[in-house]
Amino acid sequence: MNLERTLALAVEGRLYPSVILHGGSEAARAEAAIRFVRALLCERPASERPCGECRHCRRIALPESSGDAETFHPDFFWLTRDLKTSISAEATKAMLRAAQLAPFEARGQAFVIAEAASLSGEASDALLKAIEEPIERAPRNFFLLAPSRLDLPPTLRSRSLALFLGAPNAVAEERLELAA
């Protein structure tokens, strides 16, 4: 399945609860996640999503650019590695507590795990439980970003739609020479 077809599923409200965005660069994975979240939470009719202009679309941004209140969205969560080697179970469980609540202002919730390959075992198990037990009152979607889907545990892979974003960027020749 390609990116545009999968985005169409998001607009139609038929997207899997969990999507693995793998391949490509870290920036490409982050940008794809933002596109999905905007498509899911946009307030316009399905044929116009994502509009990029409504209050929801304007407030969904990468964490680095979300330093002010105008880009904060209460139904959009971005989890990054909090320890040097992994995303802790505590951070994941805190995010999943928010997933148990009804959306604050959008039609659903979106959760992005930026470095999903670094989920600790306990964090991965907690996430798996949330994916397997969807809440029916409002849609919630999880986006797992990783260089390769094979970096994730088999249990998460088997319960997620994997979307390949292309080959990673080639390493520049100068960097290879410096490493040698």
Walk me through what this model shows:
By secondary structure, the protein is an alpha/beta fold. The chain has helices at residues 3-12, 26-41, 55-59, 89-99, 121-132, 154-158, 173-179; strands at 18-22, 76-79, 109-113, 140-146, 161-164. A five-stranded parallel β-sheet has the order 2-3-4-1-5, sandwiched between helices. The protein is globular. It starts with a helix and ends with a helix.
SSE blueprint:
Blueprint lengths: L2 H10 L5 E5 L3 H16 L13 H5 L16 E4 L9 H11 L9 E5 L7 H12 L7 E7 L7 H5 L2 E4 L8 H7 L1
Parallel strand pairs: 1-4, 1-5, 2-3, 3-4
Helix pairs in contact: 1-2, 4-5
- Tell me the span between the first and last alpha carbons: 38 Å
Spatially, the strands of the biggest sheet line up as: 2-3-4-1-5
Which descriptor suits the 3D outline? globular
What would you call the structural class? alpha/beta
**Total strand segments:** 5
Helical region count? 7
The Cα radius of gyration reads 16 Å
Largest sheet geometry: 5 strands, parallel
Low-confidence stretches: none
Percent of residues in helices? 25-40%
Mean residue pLDDT: 87
The proportion of strand residues reads: 5-15%
Secondary-structure element string: HEHHEHEHEHEH
Quaternary structure state of the chains depicted: single chain
